[in-house]
Specification:
The protein is globular. It is α/β, with parallel strands linked by helices.
Length: 567
């Protein structure tokens, strides 16, 4: 055993077959990239910390216009033949190559197949005068552990490298293809997937394009880095504790974790497969809120419940998304402190800005009273490791590797604990259901504090206690994992701001004293220079199976913040 990464791909122990497979995968990726030397960024001089502008440097004006569009606008241009599918996918190829060189965000690359499909779609549109589906010609990137037929699904494990080539597509991939989307790359996720950082012993570490000293989040961190670099208009990730929302937050994107069983999630390769106590959710990362709705509608209009037995038959509700069922005056609760870890100043400042904007727009805002957030974390981490971490360690041994730093940290929560017995898991399930019942009652009781006498419509809160953190320093998942435990949908959205160092005081003296060891660690991290240029994002949380309403509320929230109120 014995290699792990810190800043780059690991040195290979030539003795172990898994290490050879990892080395070969990097070689194959590089051999593909080497065909496109003219698209690769110039790295001969000093590379700045913020590489976000370098990724589009090789594009011409027309290509730059293409990649600047959100998915919804891009699809309209393709429908009207203003852009062909071929020129769209080619523009994204160019940026993806540059983004890989600058952030290390890609795993599998299949440009030739994508180009072939783009030609087919262009020919179909030319001959038939119509598109094949709602996502006709849209480039879509896919997180590594989601099955794509014919491609490896190593999922960050050296043991699985080159041994897990998919013989079929995941349901979400199949529905994307049927809707007309073009798949062209798979993106990096961390070893084990159970990490809010993105690093593994096959491909190394993925970095944040806005500040390469910072994390892009995880476990869908490759998606975050690629999309925020304009290398994809829409990416598909998964979320069991924040793995869509945290990368979206750290990279200044929109990301949605829906309720379990509204989106298809059959066809994922990962540890703990078959563990149903806490289930990961498939969802999109995009550059606009309407693109979140675009993805969800495409899945549900395709009647995903006929393709996957676990999906509930809840058709998409366009009237709700358009806000036709919303009250004129919303009631929003703000969770600014979960009682365990107080967020850093930029997030508290953003919440206060949104509070004032919502009130100015005529909406009601109250404070959300946190309910048992430490207990929620203690419970959900038990579900993550029902077997005491046994399967993770077994896979490490098989691949001859050690856990990366953030995986070692999460595994430390179960150090020395035996696997739970069947009876113990039953008891944990009862605790989960009791917690969910209490959370529902807690939400309902907000009607006692609103002027309307209705429970609040949504909760506004951070997705993470800090902005994108330095590598290997993730310590608190509570602002994201809590909503996985209760199975509430959450949408992360960018405020449009990035941290400017001079706007904030430097010392931790400006922060209240820590209440516990975790908060002390995160408090000690505060220094605006550390987070220079990091995006500032927030999270909106809604009731279970109310994704459409949550999207409609988000529109009202963003209108209030921008000062553009509807007539």
């Amino acid at each position: 055993m014995g290699f792990s990464t810190s800043k780059s791909a690991p040195e290979v122990n030539s003795v172990h077959p898994a290490h050879k497979a990892a080395e070969h995968k990097r070689h194959v990726r590089e051999s593909i990239l080497s065909r496109y030397q003219h698209w690769r960024p110039d790295k001969t001089g000093d590379i700045p910390q913020d590489v976000s502008a370098l990724v589009t440097a090789k594009l011409d004006d027309r290509e730059r216009a293409i990649v600047s569009l959100d998915a919804t606008a891009l699809l309209e241009h393709i429908r009207q033949s203003a852009y062909s599918s071929v020129e769209v996918i080619t523009a994204y190829f160019k940026v993806a190559v540059a983004a890989q060189d600058l952030t290390n965000c890609l795993t599998e690359i299949f440009f030739d197949l994508a180009l072939e499909r783009a030609n087919e779609l262009d020919e179909y549109l030319r001959k038939e005068g119509r598109v094949v589906g709602p996502l006709h010609g849209l480039p879509v990137s896919i997180k590594d552990h989601i099955l794509v037929k014919g491609f490896d699904t190593s999922s960050g494990y050296t043991a699985w490298a080159e041994k897990t080539v998919a013989n079929k597509d995941a349901v979400v991939v199949d529905l994307l293809r049927r809707s007309g989307a073009i798949l062209y790359v798979k993106t990096a996720n961390p070893q084990t997937l159970l990490s809010l950082e993105t690093e593994n012993n096959i491909f190394g570490r993925t970095v944040n394009p806005f500040n390469t000293k910072l994390s892009p989040g995880g476990s869908s961190g490759g998606e975050g880095a690629l999309i925020s670099s304009f290398g994809s208009p829409m990416g598909i990730g998964t979320d069991i504790g924040g793995s869509i929302r945290v990368p979206a937050a750290h990279c200044g994107l929109y990301g949605m974790k829906g309720s379990v069983a509204r989106m298809p999630h059959t066809g994922l390769m990962g540890s703990q497969d078959g563990m149903d106590n806490i289930i990961g959710v498939v969802g999109p990362l995009t550059r606009s809120a309407r693109d979140l709705a675009l993805f969800a509608r495409a899945m549900l209009d395709a009647e995903a419940w006929t393709a996957e037995h676990q999906v509930l038959e809840i058709p998409w509700k366009p009237d709700v998304v358009e806000g036709k069922t919303l009250p004129r005056r919303l009631s929003i609760a703000i969770l600014a402190d979960d009682g365990v870890v107080r967020p850093h100043p930029p997030l508290l400042r953003a919440l206060e800005k949104y509070r004032k904007a919502l009130v100015a727009a005529g909406h009601e805002v109250i404070d959300w009273v946190p309910m048992r957030h430490q207990e929620a974390w203690d419970l959900i981490v038990k579900f993550y490791f029902l077997d005491g971490g046994e399967e993770y360690y077994e896979t490490f041994r098989e691949g001859g590797e050690e856990p990366i730093a953030t995986v070692a940290w999460i595994l430390s929560h179960v150090k020395g604990r035996a696997p739970y017995t069947v009876r113990q898991t039953w008891k944990l399930n009862c605790e989960r259901e009791n917690f969910r019942a209490a959370a529902l009652q807690h939400w309902n009781e907000t009607k006692r504090r609103t002027e309307s006498g209705r429970p609040v419509d949504a909760i506004l809160t951070p997705a993470f206690a800090t902005l994108a953190p330095p590598h290997d320093t993730t310590r608190w998942w509570g602002y994201s994992s809590y909503w996985n435990l209760v199975d509430y949908p959450g949408i992360v959205f960018p405020t449009g701001e990035r941290l400017v160092v001079k706007d904030y005081p430097e010392g931790v003296e400006c922060l209240p004293p820590a209440r516990n060891d975790v908060e002390e660690f995160i408090r000690s991290q505060w220094n605006p220079k550390t987070y220079e240029n990091a995006p500032v994002s927030l999270q909106l949380v809604g009731r279970r199976h109310n994704e459409e309403k949550l999207l409609a509320i988000l529109q009202k929230v963003e209108e209030a913040a921008s000062g553009t109120l509807p007539p």
